[in-house]
Amino acid sequence: MNGFDGIDEPVRLAVVGKKRKPSKECHVREKVKKMRHSGGGKMPAVICRHSQTSRLCQAERLTERDLQKNFKCFYKYETKVEQDQGLLHLITVKNVQRRRKKVEDTDRQKEREVTNEYHLLGENHPSKIPVCKATFCSVLGISKDRVSRVARYYAVNATARPEQRGGARKVDEFEAKKQLVKDHIQTFTCRARHHGRRGAPGRKYLPSDLSVKKMHKLFDQQNHDLLSYSLYYSVFRHSFNLAFGHPATDACSSCAQFHFRVKDPSLGEDEKRRETAMYILHRRRARVFYDMLGKVEHDAVTVCFDMMQNLVLPRTPIGQAYYSRQLYMYVFGVVLHHGKGSRQATDDVHLYTWMEHENTKGSNMTASALDHCLRHELRDALHSTQKLRLFSDSCFGQNKNMNILSMLFAVLKQEFPQITAEYAFPIRGHSFLPVDRVFGRIEQQVRKQETTLMPEEYYDIMRNHGRVRIYGQHWQAFDFKKETQCFVKAQKSFKLSEARMLQLQNDKVGFKPVYSSDYCYHSVLKRGKTWASFRPSLLPRQSTVKDAKKRDVLRLLSEMGASDHVQAFYHDALLSHVADGQGSESDE
């Protein structure tokens, strides 16, 4: 299955990159620094033995409440610079007034220019209380060297000591280089995934032939080895939510042809320009479909639907399963779309399931499922709107046929006569729809399970993503194909396979072969018929499981050693219905 929607878009900066930047708050060094500057683990205390009669230190006058007050006042500042400024309010720096000889050796005599006096605040004292340096440091929980550095710097510069440790001195230089890298990465184009993944929301994918190393090499060629690979890789990981995709397996054939033609060395310059212009025109036409899909009007209901890739039963990792035929489960998805980038709530997703032994896979089943969804699941939403917008791929056997159109005409005429319906089809190869994101999330969860033996296991997975409607329990199938032959003209004045957009208004079909043209209206109803009387009969159950597949499934169950309960289910499913040899329907 194709991994992309086939539409290139420019690379943009992401709010959250593919890899989150490490948080400094979680580093051990940051935690120690925060603890140190917040006073954590420290208790203010008086450690000197000076008496109250001492003129230089009157620490004995300090009460426990005084100590707590000084401690809290100091640590209310969160940064070291602010705390140093607070220290200067408690320190008095004076010039030395008297010098005494303290040592005999004059070379060891310290010639200080200033002396410091230390004070602390007293709760019940109008003036500051003088204390010694030891008590000053022990009450505030700081070292004597820190106090000396603050006082020494103030004595020389008459201002508080600024932060001089560390610092990002090359921030401006690196920011300029990072901006060059960002500009270079944004010159590339990326694509969205065909199936959205919950584990990587918003992630876009660069071409599969690129890598970060190749992108860095191109950058160096343009900027002459300006920066290292590690810096380029860091910007790529932290500023962009990008990855590299895988080669597509069901890409648009027209896109592939244009790619080969443009790269053909035998083409001249004029021919290359002409091929390039046609390729750009093709991509713009494909882009129009997605623009219409993303622009949801407030007075319209937008519905997208498609068939999911067949699920197999029993699903097992044993080697025999690779060579054995397995029973199919069919899933038809209908999504109520709310616009580009909208959240897909489970109430907006409707999944209709049936088994291969219960009925065929064709337009009768898809029309019956869509009919049930419009009449019952979306009934309230459609009664309060004037317009219904439908989007699906151009598969003729399932969606793009007169059986679906007849069903839509009947639903609108019988249930919602006030509504005008528009039905849009994408350019072939560019059928990326919101319902595919739902299928992708389901497939992602299915792959995590090693073994799946019963349909209920698939139902449990699908209920995590939408409302599950089981054939025979919640909905029935009707023979729209037979009823359409009675109501619709055999000869039509337009070719449905060439339609790009259809409009259902009154009893006529508006036809547009391109998105930008005007509707050309045609009548498809036979004379004397009305859509109000369109009542298809109940479609009988019919199995399309052939005898060879039955034998393979039963043999696989026996080799697996499945329980009696599981084997009984498959025996009833495979042997109670007689295969009629019919394959899937094909309605042109």
Summarize the structure in words.
With 588 residues, the protein is of the alpha+beta class. Among the domains are: 24-97 and 110-157, no CATH class; 295-575, no CATH class. 38% of the residues lie in helices and 14% in strands. It is built from 19 helices and 17 strands. The strands form three sheets. Strands 8, 9, 10, 11, 12, 13, 14, 15, 16 and 17 form a ten-stranded mixed beta sheet that branches. β15 and β16 (508-512) form a beta hairpin. The longest helix has 26 residues, at 269-294. The protein is elongated. The two termini are 24 Å apart. The relative contact order is 0.10.
Number of strands: 17
Instruction: Give the structural class.
Output: alpha+beta
The radius of gyration over CA amounts to 39 Å
Q: Sheet bearing the most strands, described?
A: 10 strands, mixed
The global form is: elongated
Q: How far is it from the N-terminal to the C-terminal residue, by CA?
A: 24 Å
The pLDDT mean sits at: 84
**Oligomeric state of shown chains:** single chain
Q: How many distinct helices?
A: 19
Helical content, roughly?
25-40%
Strand content: 5-15%
Unreliable parts: 1-5, 578-588
Topology:
Elements: E1 9-10, H1 28-38, H2 64-75, H3 80-88, E2 91-95, E3 114-120, E4 129-131, H4 133-140, H5 144-157, H6 171-185, E5 189-192, E6 204-206, H7 212-223, H8 229-239, E7 242-244, H9 253-262, H10 269-294, E8 300-307, E9 311-313, H11 320-323, E10 327-337, E11 349-355, H12 363-377, H13 379-383, E12 387-391, H14 402-414, E13 420-424, H15 434-447, H16 455-462, E14 467-470, H17 480-487, E15 501-505, E16 508-512, E17 520-523, H18 547-560, H19 564-575
Parallel strand pairs: 6-7, 8-12, 11-14, 12-13
Antiparallel strand pairs: 1-5, 2-3, 3-4, 5-6, 8-10, 9-10, 10-11, 13-15, 15-16, 16-17
Helix pairs in contact: 6-8, 9-10, 12-14, 14-17, 18-19
